[in-house]
Amino acid sequence: xxxxxxxxxxxxxxxxxxxxxxxxxxxxxxxxxxxxxxxxxxxxxxxxxxxxxxxxxxxxxxxxxxxxxxxxxxxxxxxxxxxxxxxxxxxxxxxxxxxxxxxxxxxxxxxxxxxxxxxxxxxxxxxxxxxxxxxxxxxxxxxxxxxxxxxxxxxxxxxxxxxxxxxxxxxxxxxxxxxxxxxxxxxxxxxxxxxxxxxxxxxxxxxxxxxxxxxxxxxxxxxxxxxxxxxxxx
Length: 234
Ligand SMILES: [Zn+2]
Fold this sequence. Notes:
The protein is an alpha/beta fold. It contains nine helices and nine strands. Strands 2, 3, 4, 7, 8 and 9 form a six-stranded parallel sheet that branches. The chain has a three-stranded parallel sheet with strand order 1-6-5, with helices on one face. The termini are far apart. The model is unreliable at 21-29 (pLDDT under 50). The protein binds zinc ion.
């Protein structure tokens, strides 16, 4: 009898392990690739500057001028409605060698959106960018970093990589430039993805902060690259 109990327990354990393994496989299959930072083990330490929420006629040109001055490239996670409103800025971003990523069309809070609405919104932003630049974004950044199961499902189905960040400059909160500087200096490492914005209401500290953090990071030996260069080399 005792032997029978042991055998039954053994079969139960095997069955549970079987179920766990398969649910794990199903979860993996539904998940998109999500990147926070990516460090290459060879070559110089590389980092990616990223700008969300634009383009915007007040700040995007200022930021592009600064990037041009330092001869570095960045990635702009653009909002589709702004892309349609300011196509010339999108053309300039692409022409000057920067990368464009998707930051949704409306910048809505995605946790409250249905799978269907979310799919439409993300596709509409991709369409707007592709229409102007000729290439469809391969990277997506969810507004406010809200990375729901629906978002992951859509990105997984369209082979789009979700790009989060590892250093938040908090420029969006109008953080004083000295604090942005200290935060970036303390927290930037090989492979860091730095979050900034090319649209913030009222007075944005971003252009002035960039004038201080870019020389500091260059001095520390970092190479500035786009997100694709960071993730794929080149
Ligand atoms: Zn945003």
